[in-house]
Amino acid sequence: MEGKRESSHASFTSAMNLTKSGAPNVPSRYILPRSVRPNDGLTPSTTLPVVDLSILYHPSLRSRVINEIRSACKEIGFFQVVNHGIPLHVMKDALEAIVGFFDLPLEGKMLLMSDNVHAPVRYGTSLNHATDKVHFWRDFIKHYSHPISEWIHLWPANPPSYREKMGKYATAVQNLQKQLMGVVLESLGMNPNYLKDEIEEGSQVMTMNCYPACPEPQLTLGMPPHSDYGSLTILLQSCTGLQIMDQNKNWVSVPLTEGALLVQLGDQIEVMSNGQYKSVVHRATVSPGKKRFSIASLHSLALNKKMGPALELVDEQHPASYKEFSFRDFLYNISNNAILGFFLPNQYITG
What we know:
Layout: H1 2-10, H2 15-20, E1 50-52, H3 62-75, E2 78-82, H4 88-102, H5 106-109, E3 121-125, E4 139-144, H6 148-151, H7 162-187, H8 196-200, E5 203-211, E6 223-226, E7 232-237, E8 242-245, E9 251-253, E10 261-265, H9 267-272, E11 282-284, E12 292-300, H10 327-336
Parallel strand pairs: 1-2
Antiparallel strand pairs: 2-10, 3-4, 4-5, 5-12, 6-11, 7-10, 7-12, 8-9, 8-11
Helix pairs in contact: 3-7, 4-7
C-alpha cells in the first residue's frame, strides 16, 4: 500500500505548477478528443433568472418567487439568487481562503493528497489523476462539511485563517440550501417539509477549485461536461468560466453577478421530480490569461439513502421513470470508471 501511495505521489503534477513553469504548450495528457474540446469561437452568454429571496416572506409576493423558481427549474435547471442572507464579506473571505491555500508550496498541499474518492479531505488535480485517461486543467481541495463540528478539524490548517473563513461560509450556505430545497419542493406542488429529516441529515461536500491560466485553452477543459449527483449545488465563483448546455444542446457562458450565488439542480432532484425538473449539464473552461477560483457546495441526501421518484408525482399518466439510487452507488460508479463526458441520471432511467 505504501509503495502504491509513493508511486501515485511521484506521478502527481498539478495544473498550477504547469502554469508556473511557463510551459508554452499543454502536455499531451491534457489534450481532449476534438469532439469534446471547447469551441474556438466565442460562446454566447445566457441570461439566468435572478431570484430575490428577500421577498419570499412577503405573503403577497411569495407566489411570484415560487413561480420564478418553477420556471427556472423546468426550463434551465439553473438560476441565481440575490438577497440570500450570506454577507458579501463572508463570500469574499471564503474566496480569499482558497486563494491562500492554492498559493501554498506544493509540499504543503501534498499532505492532503489522495486518490480515494471517499476521503473526507482530499487535495488533487484533474478529476482523479491516478485513473484519468485524459486530464483536466484543474487543482482542487474537497472536504466534508456537514455537520461541520465533525469535519472542520480535518480541514487544511494552512493558511491559518482557512478553517474560520471557510467554516462561516460553509455553515451559511448549508442553511441557505435547506431554505432553497423547501422552495424547490413547494414549486413542485409538494410539502416544503418533504424529506426534511433526510435533508437535515444529508451530506455537504465543499469543492474548492483552482483553474490556472492555460497556454492552449482550446485544447482542454477545467472540468468535463457533467451533471452533479446531489440535490442542489450552490456555486460561488471569482470570474466567468462556467458554461451550461441549453435545451438545444448548445454551450452558453454563465455571467458573473456581484453578490449573487448560482444554484443548479442535481441528479437527485431530477429523479425525485420524476423528470419534471432536469439536472443541468455544465463544464468549466479555462483561460489563457486569468486564474479562476470557484467554491461548489454540493448537497445530497445521506450516503446510503436511496432516492427514487416521489410517490406524489407518480400516477398512471406519469409512471416512475427512474430507478432508486444512492450517493454510495454514485461514488462506487466514479471510483470504478474512468469518466470522460457525461455522467447523467439516465443510467438510472427504468427500461
